[in-house]
């Protein structure tokens, strides 16, 4: 998912450089959403791993 966030970020930077501000803003928004979604999933798995680790011990 972070890979897709980086792809959309690169597309946003390229389109912003070329002057397509509407497309740039849209892809930047998508990149933000994907980044925060990946961060939330990472934190969820981190918490689950810590809880599972303490249950085994």
TrEMBL record:
<comment type="similarity">
    <text>Belongs to the UPF0391 family.</text>
</comment>
<keyword id="KW-1133">Transmembrane helix</keyword>
<feature type="transmembrane region" description="Helical">
    <location>
        <begin position="35"/>
        <end position="56"/>
    </location>
</feature>
<protein>
    <recommendedName>
        <fullName>UPF0391 membrane protein EV184_10357</fullName>
    </recommendedName>
</protein>
<keyword id="KW-0614">Plasmid</keyword>
<dbReference type="Pfam" id="PF07043">
    <property type="entry name" value="DUF1328"/>
</dbReference>
<dbReference type="InterPro" id="IPR009760">
    <property type="entry name" value="DUF1328"/>
</dbReference>
<keyword id="KW-0812">Transmembrane</keyword>
<keyword id="KW-1003">Cell membrane</keyword>
<dbReference type="GO" id="GO:0005886">
    <property type="term" value="C:plasma membrane"/>
</dbReference>
<keyword id="KW-0472">Membrane</keyword>
């Amino acid at each position: 998912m972070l890979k897709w966030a980086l792809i959309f970020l690169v597309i946003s930077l390229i389109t912003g450089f070329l002057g397509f501000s509407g497309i740039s803003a849209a892809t930047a928004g998508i990149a933000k959403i994907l980044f925060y979604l990946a961060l939330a999933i990472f934190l969820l798995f981190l918490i689950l791993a810590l809880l599972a680790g303490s249950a085994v011990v």
